[in-house]
Amino acid sequence: MKSELLTLLMEAAPNYISGQAICEKLNCSRTAVWKQIAQLKEEGYEIKAVRNKGYLLAHSSVPFSGHAVKAKLNCRILPYQIIFSSSLPSTQTKALRLATDGAEEGTVVIADQQTGGRGRLGRAWSTARGTGLAMSLLLKPDIPIHQAPQITLVAAVSIIKVLRKIGFDAKIKWPNDILIDNRKVCGILTEMQADPDRIQTIILGIGLNVNEQEFPEAIRNSAVSLSLINKEELSRTDIAAGLLNEFETDYQLFLQKSFSAFKSRWEEYSATLNRNVSVLHNNQMIYGQAVSISNEGVLKIVDESGKEHNIYSGDIEIH
Amino acid sequence: MKSELLTLLMEAAPNYISGQAICEKLNCSRTAVWKQIAQLKEEGYEIKAVRNKGYLLAHSSVPFSGHAVKAKLNCRILPYQIIFSSSLPSTQTKALRLATDGAEEGTVVIADQQTGGRGRLGRAWSTARGTGLAMSLLLKPDIPIHQAPQITLVAAVSIIKVLRKIGFDAKIKWPNDILIDNRKVCGILTEMQADPDRIQTIILGIGLNVNEQEFPEAIRNSAVSLSLINKEELSRTDIAAGLLNEFETDYQLFLQKSFSAFKSRWEEYSATLNRNVSVLHNNQMIYGQAVSISNEGVLKIVDESGKEHNIYSGDIEIH
Q1: Is-contact A141 A199, C-beta < 8 A?
Q2: Is the complex ipTM more than 0.95?
Q3: A168 partner at 20 to 30 Å CA-CA among A226, A288, B64, B222?
Q4: What's the domain range around A288?
Q5: Would you say residue A204 has pLDDT above 90?
Q6: Do residues B175 and B313 lie in contact, with contact meaning Cβ atoms separated by under 8 Å?
Q7: Taking Cα atoms as reference points, which of B38, B61, B34, B58 lies closest to residue B48?
Q8: Is B119 assigned to a binding site?
Q9: Does any CB of chain A come closer than 8 Å to the CB of residue B280?
Q10: What residues bind biotin, as annotated (chains A, B) (predicted)?
C-alpha cells in the first residue's frame, strides 16, 4: 500500500490530497493512512499535514527509490517490476541472476551505487552513490539471436528522445554509446541468455551519468554528466521513469517491425554517419567514412580505396 | 585429501595399496590415512584393510559421486571441477547460476536426480534418482555466437565415440539427439550467455538414459536406456568420466579447427543423412531428403520438387 500512497501523493503534488480521498482510493481506514504517512516520513519524505486540506508531498524530498520511479511510470503493456538496491556490484549481473531464477519480462534492477559495473567486452563502468543511473531491464523477446544487436540501437533511440525532451543535444555513437559534445554520457550493454536458435532473455543495461561532478583522471576528457552540462542537479527518478516509459513504446514497435521502423530516427540522431571513422575489423584497422546503416543495424564503411565494409560489431573511433 | 585417497584406491584396485605408499604419496601420517579410510567407509565405500597388504577398495561399492568421477578423469587441459548434487531441479539452471556468479571454464554440474530438467525449447527432461546421467558443463569458448550450434554437434560426436567403445550402436539425429535402434537415449542442450557479438559462456547439458528400467507412458516407445538394451547395469561414474575425457580432446580440436574437423566423423555417425525427413521451417512443413551437412553444421534438405533448403535449427522427423 505504501507504493500506491506515494503515487497518490506524487500525482496530487503540488496540491494537497485529502485523507478522505486517499481512504477511498486505497480502500482503507484513516488510521491506516496515518500510519503509512508516518512511515514515509521516517524514510525521509517531507509530507505536510494540514487540517481540512490533507497531505502534501514536498517533491524535492523524494529520495531516489523503486517506489518513486514506479509512481512515475505510465506503462500499460510491459508489467515493469522494479527491484531497487542502494548498492550492488552490478545491476547487469543481478538481473542475469534473477533471469536464471525465472524472473519475468519487465523486471528492472536499479542501484543507487554500483561498485563493479560492467561495460562492453568486460570493461569497467562505475556508478558512484547518489549521482548516476545504473539500470538493467530484463526482456524476453521472441526473436532470433541475430536480431539481438538491434535492441541496443532501439534503446539508444529511446534514450536520445528522453534526453532531447529535457533539453540535451545528445547523439548516438554506433553501436552503444550516447554522446553530448562528443563526450560519453551514457553506455548501453546488451547481454543475452539464449539457445543457439532463439533468445531466452535479453538484459538491457543502461549506465547514464546524471549528477556526477567529476570523473576519474583516465576518462575526464572523454566523459560528461548531464549536470556538468546544464549546471543543475537532475532527478534520477524522473529520468529513470522517462526512459522506461519511452522504451516500452519503442520495444513494442520493435517487436512488430524490427529495427527498420527506427532507422530514420536513428540516422537523425547519429554521431557516426557521414563522419570519418576508424574501426578494428577482423584484426585489421579500417579507415573510412561511415556511409549508412542497414535495416538490420549493420554499419557500412567505405574505406579510402572505395571498398565497402559491413561492420556487425566493434568500437568505432570518430575523427 | 579424501578425493586424492579415493583416486589412489581406485587406481590400485583390484590390488591392495599399502598404508605406507598412501602416506608417501599424500605426504601425511598413518593416522591421517586411517581416519580418512574410516570416513570413506562411513560414506558407503567397502574398503578391506589387511595387515601387511594394506587397503583394497571393492570397486562395485563406489557410489556415484563427484569424487568417483574425478578419480577417473585423465584430463590435462580443461581443469574440470565437479560439483555433484544428490538432487537438483536442473543441472543446466545450476550451471547457469554458477556462470553468473563467475564460475570458470571446466566447471561440471552432475546430479544423481533431476526433478525439473529441461530439454530444447523448454521441454521437460527428467532424470530419476540412481538411474540416469544429468550433467552440465560450463565452457567459455572465444568464438562468435553463430558458431554456438556447432558445440552441440561436436558433443554428439564425443558421446557416440564413448557409447561405441562400450558396445552400443548409437547414432546422431541432427541436431541434438542420440538414438539407439531409432529410440532416444540421450539429449544435448546447449545454452549460452552472450553479448550480441561474442559468447561469454556456453552451458553444455547432457541427459543420458543409463540404468532406467522403464519410462513414462508418453515416451515409452520413443525412449530407451543403455541398460534396457544390454540387460545389465552400467557404471554412471565410468560413463561420465569417459564423456568428459573424450570431450576434452574434441573441444580443443574444435577451438582450433571448428566443426569442419568433425564433419566426416559426424556423417559416419549420422542417423539423419540420406534419410527421408520432415521439418517445420519458417512455419512451413518441408518434406524431403537430408542430403548433407555443411562445415558450419547447417543441414541441407532437398524437397520433393528438388528445391534446396538450409536448415539452421529445428526438430527433424525421420521417416
Answers
A1: yes
A2: no
A3: A288
A4: 276-318
A5: yes
A6: yes
A7: B58
A8: yes
A9: no
A10: 114, 118-120, 184
